[in-house]
Design goal:
With 560 residues, the chain is mainly alpha-helical. It has a single domain (3-468), classed as Hydantoin permease. The protein contains 23 helices and no strands. It has helices at residues 3-29, 38-41, 53-64, 68-76, 81-108, 115-156, 158-179, 185-205, 210-214, 218-238, 245-270, 287-291, 294-299, 306-314, 325-349, 353-362, 365-377, 384-417, 438-443, 446-463, 465-494, 500-526, 530-559. The longest helix has 42 residues, at 115-156. The radius of gyration is 23 Å and the shape is globular.
């Protein structure tokens, strides 16, 4: 098998899926371009802001396509390229992209509220609260881990820090120009995108190295960067979305587009054979329980991610200007992420098994990806060092994007957690839906909510617990997707629509994620790692509680 054939065939497959299966989803859910979206009916200039489809696609894609679709497939390649490829192709189209589309659609139809609100309508108030706790725990982990990883990246490569600061300062200027219509989107893009690439080059000339500039130890510099990054995440989560988050993600998306363009072009021209075996099982690796279920939770974001539902229903749904764009942004964004995951397989698939084993032992997955794509782009006449450095910069930029998006999403969920149930006739008038007590007004204030999230993330980052919990994150992320698919299935049943296309993916994701968590529980019990054991047990208990609520809701829907 040839890497070029593998990638081009996958791209054609994803294109067909967009037009065929995507159209099926449009018709099944009843997408109506004539409906007024929440971004217009509830426009507030902060969270609800209608966005041009190209701008929103850039924001959404940059938010969901962090390091996940790169790291997961590279790690899963140890089982061979075929199992990873099959799950990316099948999972992305029929599970992940459908999951993202449905989450965004249901949010748009529910005033831009998060998927937790939809869960409440299907599973009741208790189900909503359990789901929000689950999501908040996962998002706190995301904020903590990406804060520490970005800080480590800034220490290891100070040029990335310089470029990131330049991007953050440039984004508000771009946002004001577009919002005030001083220039058209095309005109501003033609000016700012080349400027962004120039600033990357400037960053290599003046690296922001705190160790040298302040004369401190690396650990002190890391602590400073953690404080700075969390302060940035706090600001990005509270100011109007059009001022920083939306324009920065739009501009940053061009970094990812460029990275993918270089990857696709390099692979197509190099036409290197896949030296990695299609299926690779060592004497210490067994089909069960190593490949199954570990493969699915390892690839995670490359095929399906519960985090995407939070992005789709948390920020993107509040910016969709027309329902017809849900397929472009929600479904299309995940398919493009699938292309990135296939590139990740190619980036290590051309290596001989011994080379890959040595690299996997000594080199982090993101660097393996950068080195692989850097090798491919030499076929385009680009020096290896230049290509590998640019890819590393792009990956770091998108970790930062995931950080600020996760913080904003955590703020939304915090606010929903303390809000009264959506419909409770026994509740006195002063606590009716839409009304707020003084305590609720204080706790749901976006400044208070964001401070709470940032402080908790700081505590985790300093204690090291966030990094220690990371092995559970893949399973938690997939379990969140299963819970979202469960809510989607119940919605389809209640509205007497086709539902099996959501039910079977939900059942599959529930089985593999619970299976993986049970394996982790057993492993951590044997190692006496009680912290990881407790986290896994907590996630399992919440999953079983939600499944119980779902069974009750399913029985009710059958009797009515």
């Amino acid at each position: 098998m040839n890497t070029a054939l593998l990638l081009i065939g996958s791209i054609v497959y994803f294109l067909l899926a967009f037009f065929i299966y995507g159209k099926f989803l449009d018709k099944t859910f009843g997408v109506n371009p004539q409906n007024v979206c929440p971004s217009k009916s509830l426009q507030d200039g902060v969270d609800y802001v209608p966005a041009h489809p190209a701008v929103l696609f850039g924001h959404h894609f940059a938010s969901i396509a962090g390091a996940g679709p790169i790291v997961g497939p590279v790690l899963a390649a140890k089982f061979g390229w075929l199992p990873a490829l099959l799950w990316i192709l099948l999972g992305c189209v029929f599970v992940g992209a459908m999951h993202d589309f449905a989450a965004m659609f249901l949010s748009v139809r529910n005033q831009g509220r998060s998927i937790a609100y939809v869960i409440e309508k299907e599973l009741g108030y208790a189900g909503r609260q359990i789901f929000i706790f689950f999501c908040l725990a996962t998002l706190l982990l995301v904020v903590t881990v990406f804060t520490t990883q970005v800080a480590d990246g800034f220490i290891a490569n100070p040029a990335v820090a310089t470029a990131s600061v330049f991007f953050i300062l440039m984004a508000p200027i771009f946002g004001v120009i577009i919002n005030q219509k001083l220039l058209s989107l095309l005109e501003a893009t033609l000016i700012f995108v080349p400027l962004m690439f120039i600033l990357i080059w400037v960053g290599t000339l003046v690296p922001l190295d705190l160790v040298k500039l302040l004369g401190v130890e690396k650990e002190t510099a890391r602590f400073i960067w953690i404080l700075v990054l969390l302060y940035y995440a706090f600001i990005a989560s509270t100011i109007p979305v059009w001022f920083l988050l939306q324009p920065r993600d739009y501009l940053n998306s061009f970094l990812l587009y460029a990275m993918m363009f270089l990857g696709i072009g390099g692979i197509a021209f190099a036409r290197l054979p896949l030296q990695m075996p299609a299926v690779h099982l060592t004497e210490n690796t067994h089909l069960v329980p190593d490949v199954l279920p570990l493969l699915f939770v390892t690839i995670a974001c490359g095929a399906c991610s519960g985090f995407h539902a939070l992005v789709a229903s948390g920020t993107s749904s509040k910016q969709i200007d027309n329902e017809k764009n849900i397929r472009i942004v929600g479904y299309g964004g995940m398919l493009l992420e699938g292309v990135l995951a296939v590139i990740a397989i190619c980036s290590v698939g051309y290596l001989a098994p011994q080379q890959f084993s040595e690299q996997a032992t000594n080199v982090p997955p993101a660097i393996q990806f950068a080195q692989g794509v850097g090798h491919f782009v030499t076929s385009l006449g680009i020096p290896y060092e230049v290509g590998a450095t640019f890819i590393s910069l792009a990956i770091s930029a998108f970790m930062l994007t995931s950080l600020d998006t996760a913080t904003r999403l955590a703020r939304f969920l915090w606010q929903e957690l303390i809000m009264p149930r959506a419909d409770d006739p026994r509740r006195p008038p002063e606590l009716a839906p839409g009304a707020k007590t003084r305590a609720i007004r204080f706790l749901s204030n976006r400044w208070v909510a964001t401070i709470s999230i940032v402080v908790l993330a700081f505590i985790l980052a300093k204690s090291g617990d966030g990094a220690a919990i990371w092995p559970v994150f893949g399973s938690a992320n997939q379990l969140m997707a299963a819970m979202t698919l469960l809510g989607i299935t119940l919605y389809l049943l209640r509205n007497k629509l086709r539902w099996l296309f959501a039910f079977f993916p939900m059942l599959f994701m529930l089985v593999v994620s619970v299976w993986a968590l049970l394996n982790l529980l057993l492993t951590n019990y044997r190692k006496a790692n009680w912290m990881l054991f407790s986290v896994g047990a907590f996630l399992l208990v919440m999953a079983f509680l939600l499944a119980g609520f779902a069974c009750r809701a399913l029985r009710k829907s059958r009797t009515h």
